Amino acid sequence: MPRPSDTKQRILEVARELFAQQGVQRTSLQDIADRLGITKPALYYHFSSREELVRSIVQPILDEEEAFLTAQEALDEVEPRALLEGYFDFHYRHRRAVVLMLSELTTLADLGLIDRVLEWRERLMRLLQGPEPTPEQAVRAVIALGGIQDCTIQFPDMPRDELRRLALEGACAALGLTP
Question: How many CB atoms lie within 10 A of CB 37?
Fold first, then answer.
């Protein structure tokens, strides 16, 4: 995969920062260009629209999540705790981007990404609870997965290892798994 140019990388970094501070809809391409000290046409050279810029920020994360799920689905037998550990690690690594995505659900819906995220949850649930989970199993899986994701966001100052241990214990308890 080609590496983005330094300018493109700087645009992405500034866009992430401004989107987090102001929101996607309230951040213009001119705001980003001004912060970088470049012209708007120079920014358009790298990104034709705000939507393309948002997609460029989100797409690598989506690709990583898809790769994780595909690898889990390829296993002969899924080890629930290992799946939950990988899920925690993914969300912890991308917690700032996840906050941005959650705060911009309308933008993500406009880009067609909400359905993809919901489909992943379904796939994860099947991996954890089988192809036809009971309502109780489905609810427990949603609590476990949502809880892990929420913990990575809710406790930014907690040491990673402690947060990981506690989040995984809680997810396992929700699923009725022994620690």
Answer: 8
